[in-house]
Design brief:
It is a single chain. The protein has four helices and two strands, in the order H-H-H-H-E-E. By secondary structure, the protein is mostly helical. The chain has one domain: Arc Repressor Mutant, subunit A (Orthogonal Bundle). It has a two-stranded antiparallel ribbon with strand order 1-2. A hairpin with a 3-residue loop joins strand 1 and strand 2. The relative contact order is 0.22.
């Protein structure tokens, strides 16, 4: 089992609902935290890092950084 904090769980659930689709920080903030909340965009980076760590050795492979664009959930083959 993987133990996730509530925010990391929301992130994973969001990405799992849209596998393979790339989202920028603003889109992730709006979808996971809500567009009415004012949070630094770098918060997304921190939470993505925590999610990857919680997912273990494959975390980096599952939650990909798309350089200059954002993040996506990679679909294993």
């Amino acid at each position: 089992p993987v133990e996730l904090a509530p925010t990391e769980f929301k992130l994973l659930r969001f990405f799992m609902a849209h596998p393979g689709r790339v989202f920028n920080r603003t889109q992730v903030l709006d979808q996971v935290w809500g567009d009415h909340v004012f949070i630094e965009e770098r918060t997304v980076d921190v939470r993505i890092r925590r999610l990857r760590l919680a997912l273990g050795p494959k975390g980096e492979e599952l939650v990909k950084t798309v350089r200059g664009t954002g993040y996506k959930l990679a679909i294993p083959r």
